[in-house]
Amino acid sequence: MRASVVAETAGVPTVSIVCEGFQRQALATGRGLGLDDLPLAVLHGHVDTQSHDEMIARFREHTIDQIVRGLTDAHDVAGEETAEPSALEVVATGTIDEIHRRFLELGWTDGSPFVPPTVDRVRALLDGTGHDPFRVIGQARPSGRDITVWSVAVNAVMAGLEQRHLPVVLALAEVLANPQYGVEHSGNTTGADALVVVSGPSIAELGFHSEAGALREGVHANTAVGRWLRLYLRNVCGFTGAEHDKATFGNSTRVVLAEHEPTLTSIGWPALATDLGATPGVDTVAVARMNGGLIVGSVFGSSPGEVLPYLANGLVRVSGWELTHVYGLGHHSYRPLLVLSPLLARLFARHGWSKHDVRRGLWERAVLPARTWEAFIGEWSNLTAGRRTLIDLVAKGLLPARFAESDDPDRLVPLVATPDEIMVAVAGDPNRANAFVFSNDGRHGDWTTATIDRSVSLDLACRIDQPDRCG
């Protein structure tokens, strides 16, 4: 779609070929990029489940005529304004039940009860923070809508957040606006969903829970901030089943994971956000999209050498097609996450292990046969070109030598190219030897951080009821 937009803007007619079932997403993507009604041609059937001959036959029968019509019929792609409510417009009135039904009809809620975002409630959430409610943080791709302080606050009210949580969701809004994160990929077919990890000295003060039951609903800050993200993706970024959400199987909203600051401080390990380049000791959000995860339960052992094989096995079990991100869909972009309970993190620290030592140990032990690795990027996938072997990739300098130590197809090779591509966080019950592993969706929601700024903002240039004074 991006190529089509560039060509159409330059006056060159185009037709975008899309798979069956993706027409509305394609039109929404074009609208988000500034052009309405881009011509489409539909390829019938799924490309991965057809033979070459079947695909060619269906292309001739259904698709060629659409391409010809799209290139020869006059069409106006100048772009139109889509009528949407303004920031202060009242869109529904009535009882709680009536408002709830209205929002359901309009697709503005995830289906669960919500706090009606009245103008007074949104104003109250912003009151005294110093934020200009109409400040634009960035653009929500591919919906094309502005990410504003006001829209952040509206969805925060809906999720039931308190004012003290506003800096957290504003930081998350910065992540959504950051091209590195790639929010436009949030609706891809594998259904990965964002995991938010918070860390820093103020996390407990903000009400985030980091101990027993981490990743489970029940604590307000962890649960409501996670819900805010899902609502914002729906209401501002446009991720609904009618448009951009094409997940085959969707993950549920993920509860925010808060790192266990007392353990990190006592053993001298950096927070996950620091590993990703954030400033040490600063309240930070780190976000990435995860395909799935699993518990590594009852890790047994009293030394790093005894517990590492079990943890490494968990990383192997959770990883599969994601290996295409090591070479293919964004080289070296697969960065799985291991969440250690504080007890396990302290075990490593007692033996003098840094977090880098843990990553190195996992890299050496989280291995699988080369023939399986190659199947994920070749025989079982059409996502990487050429179906080259690991030895071919090493010869071309695309993977390190560790992947071609011999030509034995059963030799063991790592999951990722370097130890630093294995992410490690610390959270959970301080008295239990469990861990959790997540598989990362690579460039379809790459690890991105933003600072949680709790200071009073200096950007206020107007009052909500005097928008003509906005700078």
Account of the protein in words:
- With about 475 residues, the protein is α/β, with parallel strands linked by helices.
- The chain is built from 15 helices and 13 strands.
- The strands form four sheets. Strands 5, 6, 7, 8, 11, 12 and 13 form a seven-stranded mixed β-sheet that branches.
- The longest helix is centred in the N-terminal third of the chain and has 21 residues, at about 50-70.
- The protein is flat, with a radius of gyration of 24 Å.
- Mean pLDDT is about 90; it is low at about 75-80.
Present the secondary structure layout.
Elements: H1 2-9, E1 16-19, H2 23-32, E2 40-43, H3 52-72, H4 96-106, H5 119-126, E3 136-140, E4 145-148, H6 149-159, H7 166-177, E5 193-199, H8 220-235, E6 257-258, H9 261-267, H10 272-275, E7 284-296, H11 304-318, E8 337-340, H12 342-350, H13 355-365, E9 367-369, H14 370-379, H15 390-395, E10 412-414, E11 423-426, E12 435-440, E13 448-451
Parallel strand pairs: 1-2, 5-6, 8-11
Antiparallel strand pairs: 3-4, 5-7, 7-12, 7-13, 8-12, 9-10
Helix pairs in contact: 5-6, 6-7, 6-8, 11-13
Largest sheet: 7 strands, mixed
Order of helices and strands: HEHEHHHEEHHEHEHHEHEHHEHHEEEE
How many helical stretches?
A: 15
Q: Report the structural category.
A: alpha/beta
Helix fraction, binned, reads: 25-40%
Radius of gyration: 24 Å
Amino- and carboxy-terminal Cα gap: 34 Å
Number of strands: 13
Report the β-strand fraction as a percent range: 5-15%
Q: Uncertain runs with pLDDT below 50, 5 residues or more? A: 77-81
Short characterization:
The protein is of the alpha/beta class and 471 residues long.
